[in-house]
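Fold it.
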Amino acid sequence: MTPAGFAAGSCRRMPSRTRGVSLVELCVVLAVSAVLLGVAVPDLRTLVRTQQLKAATGDLFAALDLARGRALVHGRQVKLVPLDPAGTDWTRGWRVVDDRDGNGEVGADEVVAEHGPLADGIAIGFAFTTAAPPYYIAYNGAGRSCADGNSAAARWGTLSLFHGGRIRRIKINMLGRARVCEPARDAGCDGAAAPP
């Protein structure tokens, strides 16, 4: 008795007919994939924007923490300033400046850290006790938020980050402590209005 698929008197297997995918089946699979992709893309964009906003908030919060920590360690004023020459646009990036000589000028050896531009579409609002530009956040040697010209004058407020309809805020109290909040989850998370 010869096993199925083998020719009588031979140990060679006869080629069996292989079946491929028909054009109709391929079209159905592509159509279903296109529908699923069309549903997923808007959610993917929202996810990317949310992550970009969280990353920008985290980076800015870390820069604030670095500035405050350095001010406490060295006992002198340290500032966080936007890279924008006019001192108003935080989306271009920022730097932490330790003005060691106290002359108000930023020397190359006084830049502690620098962050580049943020992702496209992110906007930052600034609402502090002194709202006139140039914008900055300064910490005195005791780690309290203060005015640039007067380390004893308290200066507190909120940095608001906007992206894709979402808002995250960094609130700095008069002691210099910062916290991150979201208006959708926290009733006490007020700040600058979203840009038009």
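The mean pLDDT is 85.
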